[in-house]
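Lab notebook, bench 4. The sequencing result for the construct came back, and we need a structural model before the next group meeting so we can plan mutations. Quick request posted to the team channel:

Model the 3D structure of this chain.
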Amino acid sequence: MQTPTTAQLRTAIEVLNKLGERLNAHAEHSVMQLSETPLGAHYAGRIEVGAIEQTTRIEAVATQLKNWRDELLEQRRQCVSHHV
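Done. Here's the predicted structure in token form:
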């Protein structure tokens, strides 16, 4: 497997952030469409919890990618300083 470039990692992070935004917007829209009944409130709660769980996982992966990108940048800096 080939190591991705820092630009590719940055793009992946941006895509994950957009996905999180989309999930939140979709959940918000879905909740607004529900009727104001006990059952509607129950479904709204489930939708919100699901969105929180998904965005938490997305944020965790984005953080891992940021860390990887930072490691690659640091390796590049060290490599450049050794060549100078």
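The helical segments are 6-33, 38-83.
Will bring this to the meeting.
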